[in-house]
Amino acid sequence: MASDAVTLIMNDHRIMEQLFERLEAAEGDLQVLLDECAARLTAHSHAEEQKVYPVLAELDEQARQDAHHGADEHHDAERLLHDLQRISPEGPDFFDRLENFIATVRRHVEHEETVLLPALRASLTLERLEEMGAAFQEVRAAELAVAGIRV
Ligand SMILES: [Fe+2]
Ligand SMILES: [Fe+2]
């Protein structure tokens, strides 16, 4: 199985997307789904910020700005999700706020997959991408373990 950083990040995006679809369909306990979403989102974001964005930032000035902007988008998404966790799923604006959160993450993921990750793939050797993948996975797995989620 491929273990380069780009593939691992994109696989994780697909897991998040499945969670979003279950939330949108109100499939199961929404609070439980939101908690899993929060654990996965923070583990993924921290692993990117610690192990991937710093490498991206060294490519060129545009990539440096993109990495900075990407970290801001992580914080926006975490704030929206945190707010969502504090309101009742029965409340009148829950699904509007859920859609706002999901749309924010989807825009970020699309930007990563069309701009940031292709830039990494074009600039780094496969060996370097695999080293980065292992580092990404280590941070991610450690954070998920704390949250009690099996990788
Ligand atoms: Fe990502
Ligand atoms: Fe990200």
Structure description:
- With 151 residues, this protein is mostly helical.
- It has one domain.
- Helix content is 81%, strand content 0%.
- It is built from six helices and no strands.
- The protein has helices at 5-24, 30-51, 53-57, 61-85, 94-123, 126-146.
- Helix 1 (5-24) packs antiparallel against helix 5, helix 1 crosses helix 6 and helix 2 (30-51) packs antiparallel against helix 4.
- The longest helix has 30 residues, at 94-123.
- The radius of gyration is 16 Å and the shape is globular.
- Bound molecules: fe (ii) ion (2 copies).
- One fe (ii) ion binds next to helix 2, helix 4 and helix 5.
- The site of one fe (ii) ion (FE2) has 6 residues, from helix 2, helix 4 and helix 5.
Task: Provide the residue-averaged pLDDT.
Answer: 95
Count of spatially separate domains:
1
Each distinct ligand: fe (ii) ion
Shape: globular
Give the strand content: under 5%
What's the short version?
By secondary structure, the protein is mostly helical.
Task: Please give the structural blueprint.
Elements: H1 5-24, H2 30-51, H3 53-57, H4 61-85, H5 94-123, H6 126-146
Helix pairs in contact: 1-2, 1-5, 1-6, 2-4, 2-6, 4-5
The protein binds fe (ii) ion (FE2) (2 copies).
One fe (ii) ion (FE2) is lined by residues 9, 13, 44, 48, 112.
Keywords, separated by commas or semicolons:
globular; mainly alpha; 151 residues
